[in-house]
Amino acid sequence: MNEPWVPVPPNSGFGIAHLPYGVFATRGTPSRVGVRIGDLVLDLAAVLDDPVFSEPSLNGFMAQGRESWRATRARVVELLSDERHRPWVEEALYPVSGVALRMPFVVADYVDFYASEHHATNLGRILRPDTEPLPPNWKHFPVGYHGRAGTVVVSGTPILRPQGQRRAPNDALPTFGSSTRLDLEAEVGFVVGCGSPIGERVSPERAEEHLFGAFLLNDWSARDIQAWEYVPLGPFLGKSFATTVSAWVTPMEALTSARIPGPEQDPAPVDYLTGAQNGGLDLRLSVTLNGEEIARPPYRQMYWSPAQMLAHMTINGASLRPGDLFASGTVSGPERGEWGSLMELAWNGTRPLTLRDGSTRSFLDDGDVVTLTATAPGPNGSHIALGEATGQIIPAS
Question: Phi then psi for 33, rounded to 5 degrees?
Fold first, then answer.
């Protein structure tokens, strides 16, 4: 990878091997597509001869397909590393601190999976202590639910505490009010670029033709609302009030050095879930609550890969569209410090976390700020940093 002429702070995680895409606006100008390099954003509408970058979302560019993604990335690397381009490209660079970051793509559909064996096992032990922790289907396909696309919000958007029906275990009837068991879920999201028609199944080997990029995602969860509603059809209002995603989408090509073999799967999956054996990703997440790190979930521990999730989404003939978002489900490892939700970290409120200031948390309080960050290996011993996903809880209105 060429060295950039653009100044990049040491260990920034946003060097020329990364180049995540986002949508930004400057004062008095419309939103358009940019690429981040260091602490700057390059205005692609100004330097590339394609009107798709003047659009206020990545959807048009993502729909162009993998060859266009590769060609664009190569051209951006050339512009930022060849001094001949510096005089005019510099005019299209803006400090990240001086721009407004927007939702990077229009979400077509949203599916959230449940791909961590450690997370699924922990929740099974908490919620069903007298039965096997994993449901019978869990190791045969990636379990998931269909979420609400319209409430996916960009990092920095305040999160309104949801209201709904709750029923405590000893109550005869439900009550209505603000959730008192609001939780975070540290996840990794993936966005589809190139779609597929109804009836076409996308195999794991073909996933890279469709997957545009990855980003951090917080699947906020109202555990009390969810507990009352989820039987028999699963998550609904306890999840649909808000989902936070990063403003920056890391291209899958930037994660080449983070590819690892997936875990051994026993029993062996059925045929349509086999293939793409290097489908795992070595992403190291960090969860902070009010600036204090409370967990370091390891994505490399995930049981089901992004390619398998995509294959399962389409096995019934469901189509893909540019902007389809699917998420991994909570990322958790085997140790307590690697669990990606307060439901696990505080063990459903029975083991509250004690923070540095002496306060405790079983679930989120109003005013709490949750931030997800992550790093991944880059080329030649370097690293990349996924864009953060942050949100602050505000009281119910």
Answer: -85, 140
Tokens 């060429």 belong to 2
CA 131 to chain centre: 31
Distant-in-sequence, close-in-space partners of 170: CB < 8 Å, separation ≥ 6: none
Q: Which long-range contacts (CB under 8 A, 24 or more apart) does 66-73 make?
A: 66/193, 66/194, 66/208, 66/209, 69/193, 69/212, 69/251, 69/253, 70/253, 72/44, 72/48, 73/19, 73/251, 73/253
Catalytic residue among 118, 119, 210, 312: 119
Q: Please provide the size of the chain in residues.
A: 397
Question: Is 119 one of the annotated active-site residues of the chain?
Answer: yes
Residues whose CB is less than 8 angstroms from the CB of residue 45 and which lie 6 or more positions away in sequence, other chains included: 32, 33, 51, 53, 54
Which residue has 């983070």 as its token pair? 258
For 55, list phi and psi in degrees, rounded to 5. Answer: -80, 155
Euclidean distance between the first and the last CA atom of the chain, given in angstroms as a whole number? 51
44-98 pLDDT, tens digit each: 999 999 999 999 999 999 999 999 999 999 999 999 999 999 999 999 999 999 9
Q: Which residues contact 92 (CB under 8 A, 6 or more apart)?
A: 42, 43, 46, 47
- Helix or strand run (H / E) with residue 307: helix 306-314
- The contacts of residue 142 (CB under 8 Å, 6+ apart) are 113, 114, 115, 304, 308, 309, 312
